[in-house]
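Workshop exercise sheet. Pairs work together: one partner reads the sequence aloud, the other fills in the structure field after running the prediction. Swap roles for the next sheet.
Pair: D.N. / O.F.
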Amino acid sequence: MRRTDRTRRKQIGLKRLVLFLTAFVFSVLLLARVDTNAASRAVSDSAKFAGAFVNWGPVGREQTLLQWEKWLKQKPSSVLGVDFYGEASWQDFHKLTWVPGIWKNLNPSRNVAWSVPLTITGTPLADVASGLHDGEFEAAARAISAAQPKAIIRLGWEMNLSQMGWFAKDHEAEYIAAFRRVVGIFRRHSSDFRFDWCPGWGAQDTPADLTYPGDDVVDYIGLDVYDFKQEGSVEDRWNTFYLKAPFGLEWHRDFAVKHGKLMSYPEWGVGYAGDNPFFIQQMRDWFVKNDGTIAYVAYFDVDGLWPTQIDNDQFPQSQQLFRKLFSR
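Structure field:
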């Protein structure tokens, strides 16, 4: 009887030990898997957030973008390139068909987000909507599809800003009709194109949502965001002019959710209000917080209407933080 009890206790003890060891090994494996997934996500997110519009190099933007990737320790060809197609004249739509090919020749692995004007200054949106410039958009679609058949097409961006040639105030119906017509043209050349509808942030000069062209012709809902406003502290500016502003970041998030679309940030940058690492940090935090609903992000690393380039030492505090936050 006593020997039988000892045997049972030994058996029970062995079973408990086996169960404990099994649970311990399973937990270790599970944690390893979680850590691996987290690391994988971090790498993926890092590249997704590190796209850029860069300066034209010796033969194109691709070589500059490779330097950008190296600066951020990103894998070659891992980030999205951004470019602009034929802004100045209708003739450019035919003359610049070689530009997408430059990207392809230098790096066929690179995908590009193409900002395509919806009209040229002086041409009413109604003319585009009625098909008078189908030939120009056919030329653009043909050139881009041959080079980047999975490109992102950002049509008529920042339509809520008065300085844009396709400013939509009082012409919302024409803007929508033109947008929808051009999407149809591009889709005939590649079914893998993705279309980005992208206002400028904030109230601007007309309500952005009045120009939304419809869920069937939009894949991504974008927003261009720059550190532009100078009133108040950096904290006040962030909350007032970016996060909670009419047609600001929270509106963007909620509008995208309402329409079942991913968000994008095709242009963003620091510079107009000077060296502001706080803005860099807040934008990165916003990207990470909304990671699962963001398609891509691209920094405007070119000095345009105002300085925004982040890798040339003109904004040293922002540059240092940017490199830390957006490196792999």
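Discussion prompt: The beta strands are 51-53, 81-84, 112-116, 152-155, 194-197, 220-222, 225-226, 262-265, 268-269, 294-300. What would you look at next?
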